[in-house]
Write a structure and sequence with these properties.
The complex is a heterodimer of chains A (250) and B (246). Chain A has 250 residues and is α/β, with parallel strands linked by helices. Chain A has ten helices and ten strands. With 246 residues, chain B is mainly α. Helix content of chain B is 85%, strand content 0%. The two termini of chain B are 34 Å apart. The interface between A and B is medium-sized, with 22 and 17 residues.
Chain lengths: 250, 246
């Protein structure tokens, strides 16, 4: 479980996160939703320590991450998997070497066991025979799946995804969403996903936090979201005709 | 004020770079990769430049020594000293600052803007040390080899073109090359080369590492890295010469 309490982040004089508190549950898909520029990515990067917060606290299973020194944070970071918006695969390395990096750095596995684990993770994301290809040889959807495989290769306790299906076609986006949901339930991971894709929200959102202009405006489940009275949330969700019709039907 | 902030940031970065690698086997593999991608790949380039500049230096010295009172072996002597003292360690390092520096800054800058550095940090890896330390060791190890190679080829180029154009015979040129040889000059050249290798590896890496934005900013970081490392090489060339040859 991850708990953030009253976190605030400024860039210069611009307040990007304003006093946000939330709890992200383990074994659940937790979503942070909001418009582009609402502060979702900053929120996730702050939780990971890639941006230093100005005030507030962040706890990973009762461990105060925000007040830790960088050296101590590395211990928690080894328990975290992260899928970046663009995949962030190392383009000078093959797919196998991409997955090998965390294993070589932080596991005592033999070479054979590492290869077995890599093949297992690639198979888990429905990729096979790509070990010796390079990221540039793969499609966007395949790159995202490799990024997910790399994120889970060390069996993380926490999984963060920054807009994992941005730039993907609707079918591939659904495949990625389902994959993230399955992995979360299978390994009881605390998964936190940034998205503004309403299909993802309705498909996998166990616990949803809505942010607008750096302020948390709403929190609930995908079942509650359709009946919410929150004006900002409704304006965001029912922006498209499809969801407006869905709302009128419900 | 801005310059002091930049210098402070650079030294904090260097402190982060010079930390113990998490895995020595990974470090060794990266070191070998960098030796090949930065060093070995520059051999042809350095060879070409050295041969022709050696030739030009010889021709210019011969042109300036066109006096029957001056012995011809002075052409070999002056060529040797120009090459060992200045051309190979300084000019070749300046050229390498362009080639290697732009490679380092753009590679690391691209990794920054595509979040690959964030991905390394997220894995609990000291990204600065992981990316930059093997490059520093590779250049400090391989640049002196490149410079030695450059010295030999430039002198060979000078001898060949001197003989070919009839300005200086082989015997006279080789006499000059061996005449009044000071071994410390070679040590001085290596000391300069090692300092310049440190500059070429760290300064473009620094600009690349702190790139913000996209492709445009990566290009700007690369330019800044090359220009500023060239300026520092010129400044350190003067300082080291003042310290060691005075």
């Amino acid at each position: 479980m991850i708990e953030v309490k009253n976190i605030t982040k400024k860039f210069g004089s611009t307040l990007v996160l304003n006093n946000i508190s939330a709890t992200f549950l383990s074994g659940k898909v937790n979503l942070i939703i909001g418009q582009s520029g609402s502060g979702k990515t900053v929120a996730i990067k702050s939780m990971l320590g890639l941006h230093e917060i100005d005030s507030g606290t962040i706890f990973y299973d009762q461990r105060d991450f925000s007040s830790m020194k960088n050296k101590d944070r590395q211990i928690i970071r080894k328990e975290i998997g992260m899928v970046f918006q663009g995949g962030a695969l190392f383009d000078s390395k093959s797919i196998e070497d991409n997955l090998m990096v965390p294993l070589i750095m932080f596991s005592n596995m033999s070479k054979e066991k590492m290869k077995y684990r890599i093949n297992f993770c690639l198979k888990r994301v429905n990729l096979e025979n790509v070990n010796h290809l390079y990221p540039s040889d793969l499609s966007g959807g395949m790159q995202k799946r490799v990024a997910i495989a790399r994120a889970i290769v060390l069996k993380p306790k926490y999984l963060f995804c920054d807009e994992p299906n941005s730039g993907l076609d609707p079918y591939t986006a659904t495949v990625i969403d389902e994959l993230l949901k399955e992995i979360t339930y299978e390994y009881k991971i605390t998964t936190v996903i940034n998205t503004h894709d309403m299909n993802s929200v309705m498909q996998i959102g166990d616990h949803i936090i809505f942010i607008k202009e750096g302020v948390k405006k709403w929190e609930g489940s995908k079942n509650e979201i359709m009946d919410s009275e929150n004006k900002d949330l409704n304006k965001f969700i029912f922006a498209s005709e499809v969801f407006k019709r869905l709302k009128s039907l419900s | 004020m801005k310059i002091f902030i930049l210098i402070g940031k650079y030294f904090i970065f260097i402190r982060k770079v010079f930390s113990r690698p998490s895995s020595f086997s990974v470090f060794y593999k990266s070191f070998i990769d960098e030796v090949f991608s930065l060093g070995v790949s520059s051999i042809g380039f350095v060879a070409f430049i050295s041969l022709f500049v050696g030739a030009v230096v010889t021709l210019q010295i011969a042109y300036n020594l066109e006096n029957p009172l001056l012995p011809s072996y002075l052409i070999g002597l002056a060529t040797r000293d120009s090459i060992i003292l200045e051309f190979s360690p300084t000019m070749v390092s300046l050229i390498l600052a362009g080639k290697m520096g732009s490679n380092i800054a753009s590679t690391i800058g691209t990794m920054r803007v595509t979040e690959q550095i964030d991905a390394l940090e997220m894995m609990g890896i000291n990204s600065a040390s992981y990316l930059v330390l093997p490059k520093i060791f590779a250049l400090v190890f391989f640049n002196p080899i490149l410079i030695t190679f450059s010295m030999f080829l430039a002198i060979i180029g000078g001898w060949f073109f001197g003989e070919f154009t009839g300005l200086c015979s082989t015997t006279e040129f080789l006499d000059g090359v061996q005449y009044f040889f000071i071994p410390f000059n070679v040590i001085y050249a290596y000391i300069k080369t090692i300092f310049f290798a440190l500059i070429i590896a760290t300064l473009p890496a620094f600009y690349g590492y702190f790139t913000k934005g996209g492709a445009l900013e990566v290009g700007q970081a690369s330019t800044k890295g090359v220009v500023n490392s060239s300026i520092l090489i010129i400044i350190f060339n003067y300082l080291i010469t003042q310290l060691l040859l005075n």
